[in-house]
Amino acid sequence: MNRHTGGFYGVNEALFSSALACIVFSTSGAQPLTIVGVTGLISLFNYTIFDIIQRHDVALYPQFMTWVAIWAAIFHWLFAICNLCDYMRYVTDFSSQSFGAYVGIIYCIKGVELLIAEFESDGPTDGFMSTIIAIMFFFTVYVLEMVGRGLWFRPWMRGFLGDYAYPNQSSVAAQARQFPLKKPGGFHWDFFLLGCTSFIAGIIDIPLPNGLVPQAPVHTDSLTNYKSVLKIIKKEDGGEIRQQEIVAESVAEQRVSHFLMGLAIIATMTGPILIVLNLIPRALFGGVFFVVGWGGLEGNGIMAKIIYLIREPRFIQPDEPLLQIPRKRVAFYLFWQIFGFPVLIIALIPLRWKVLPMIFTAKELRIMDAPTADNEVVLASMGGKPRMPKGKEDEDGETDSPGGRHSADAQQNKWSAAERGVPREALRERAGGWSEA
């Protein structure tokens, strides 16, 4: 961001913006685990505007960014006051997966662009070494994540090694039902608060804090108490299969860790630590882009459907929900998701509500789609469970779609989690939520 904005934004500005949002939300936010800060998307947003302004008069950039922040604050306040955050409960995987795949691809592209810039500015030798650093960082993180999810070592050792990985997950992943949260997420108040921090950031010329209100998944995960359970499956021949099942028992929902993060970020703005930060090679950020980008693609439902379609049929598990749908219908659904890439993302929501129910049956939508926000606590703060539109008749005469006439009870166990990237054995039915198909 510093390089692409002519030096207008620097390291200190980004650190101060994150520290400001950290302290404000840790002390005043409704949900204590909500973390807001400068993200990669904000960086892309800032220097995309800079590229546009540069075509006219680059001297206008500071004033223009101030007005962008002011208008962003106004819209946040209007959304909060008018309770428009409630409509987030109608967002399903159809649109969130399209947006997640788009973001993942953008991150990978930016990683490649950064390495190309290293070749152009420093020559082939430095460019080659930068590429090696980025690739090694990517694979190191990937291996650590595999260890954290695997069966090697003891649980405490797996957790210790996994904590040194660099997960990138969506904000929804931290609010999903696998985290047994108790305190509600006051989205309207947090949205209003984000408008306040955006307004302050614009006035004092620092980058906007995160344009979302996520519960950082890494933070939530680190505060979750897990229990490793031995699951024994009896075989027909009398033998048994032993599997590990990780169960989330509780989350330590408090404000101290978040507040200390803000103070720690302020500490990094001191001279000695800034010198250390200056020694980090830019190539490392290329590796970060690859990790974040691939992390968003690997667990994406679009990627899961593509892998399902190209996988040899005999190796597909018999309990795979997508087997209930003809493969050409899955491919047709994929077409609509990929079609959403160049479309304004908010337009995908009415598309899902008005068009798809006329094209796909209720059964097909139940299996391939699901509410993005599925935690009972989260839904309670957004106006309750959504009532989804009815799809056209199923082949078996079934006419109700999820969230229709039987949404509260009979239909709730038909939501699919097949493409969530969550192990099927790890999903547990919770009162008021949706269980797997």
Automatic annotation (TrEMBL):
Bicarbonate transporter-like transmembrane domain sequence ranges: 2-120, 176-370
Signal peptide: none
Cellular compartments per GO CC: plasma membrane
Superkingdom as given in the UniProt entry: Eukaryota
Keyword entries, A-Z: Membrane, Transmembrane, Transmembrane helix
TM region(s), chain numbering: 64-87, 99-116, 128-148, 259-280, 287-310, 330-351
Membrane topology: Multi-pass membrane protein
InterPro entries: HCO3_transpt-like_TM_dom, HCO3_transpt_euk
Biological process terms in GO annotation: borate transport; monoatomic anion transport; monoatomic ion homeostasis
Biased composition (Basic and acidic residues): 421-431
Compartment(s): Membrane
PANTHER family: ANION EXCHANGE PROTEIN, ANION TRANSPORTER (EUROFUNG)
Protein name, entry field: Bicarbonate transporter-like transmembrane domain-containing protein
